[in-house]
Amino acid sequence: MNFKVKAALLGSGLLLLGGGLMLRKPNGKSATDGVSPLAFNYDAIRELPYFVRRPTRMTLAAWLVEAWQADGTLSVDEMSTLLAIAYRESGYRLDAISGPDAPDAAVGDAHSLFQITGQTATGLGVDIRQLVPWSQTEAEFRRATHANAHAALKFLNQRPRWSRPRTFREAVLSQYAGDPYAVARQYFCSWAGGVGRRWEDIADVPVNNRPGSLGYIHITILHKMEVLNQFRAFLGQPPLGALAGRAITDVEDGAVAGSPLWLHRAVVHAWPLSEAQLVSAAPRADRADFATLV
Fold it and tell me: Whole-model pTM?
């Protein structure tokens, strides 16, 4: 059976979407090989729209962290950044599939928590069929969630031409040392444009509403920035507001109201944005894309 069809059929009866899984924290240390599990503050994310409707999906966020702790390479800053990516990419739906009109349709669609395309999965050596559960059991949901966590690690550990011999992750952490805001911004940027796409490539590109364009990447960054501090709080971290904007490679117009970088910072700082500012920053954009910023 075609993978897309099978995943869609499975999705219609997922226990997770119907509220069948127990909301819990991982117990014990066995899953993290001796590393004490992080304490999860579910109250920090409970009111996010996707979780209000399906609170059991928060369990998947805990299982992602469980897998990353077992791997032992990611910082807590990076984990919270990846959790924000999963939230905006899929709403924590293991059966999520990109729509037929999405640009991803040309490369095997995008699947599961991190919306990994068939083309990307092939390049990463990921069996995309393993990113969804194949039975309605808690063990299968957990296995599929862990598979998504490991696929995210493979994404970060690619070696694009600009970072070699280092991995993408190593290069980004070195470039933005001590600035988790800038690291998150680069991860958000590359999740939309690929690890070959650097922040410097899009920093001065005007925002626009055309999916697949460089300007549209700013919209994807804005949406993920909106929820980043909630996921930081979920893992017991302070908000990024006091740290925002310290990257040494920030473009000169970063302090100019309405510039793309200014918009990113405004979201982190929770600055009020007027409709006029949004229109000025994105003259070709549909303002509905920015509705949650107003």
Answer: 0.81
